Amino acid sequence: IKAMKGYSYELELPENWRMSKLFHADRLRKDSNNPLPGQEYERPNPDIVNDEEEWEVENILSSRIHYGKLQYMVQWRDWDPNPEYYNADNFINAPFKIRDFHEQNPNCEGPPARLKNWEKAFAREEFLKPHKDDNKPAHPLKGLVTSHRRK
């Protein structure tokens, strides 16, 4: 930022950019990877659950089957959006978020085959050991696309 004029800011731009260097304040936002001084946002520390770091799920955005494994894209509480998918077994301690997501989105892939086990363990405050079916969808053929040959 070179200077402020009223509600507008003059920016330092490369010389080869052929555009106005004056921008209204409502057109500007901080770069989350390079905030201005005083705009530092301290990320919350993860909770330690069963000797592992855990972050709180704010919202489940979508699900998919990737190489036979059920995965979820989520919005983490107090974090910027993340377009990455994570295996279902990462959400064993958020079973009710998963259940709610699938109740609201019945056509999405999933839920996990062991979701009921996860809910019971969560209600009893027990920790489940990893299981080979934790990343399996309850309905593995749900998203299967079939083709019909013309006769």
UniProtKB/TrEMBL annotation:
This is Chromo domain-containing protein. InterPro entries: Chromo-like_dom_sf (IPR016197), Chromo/chromo_shadow_dom (IPR000953). Residues 55-113 form the Chromo domain. GO terms for biological process: chromatin remodeling. Residues 128-151 are annotated as: Disordered. It comes from the Eukaryota. Residues 128-137 have a biased composition (Basic and acidic residues). Gene3D superfamilies: 2.40.50.40. Component of the NuA4 histone acetyltransferase complex.
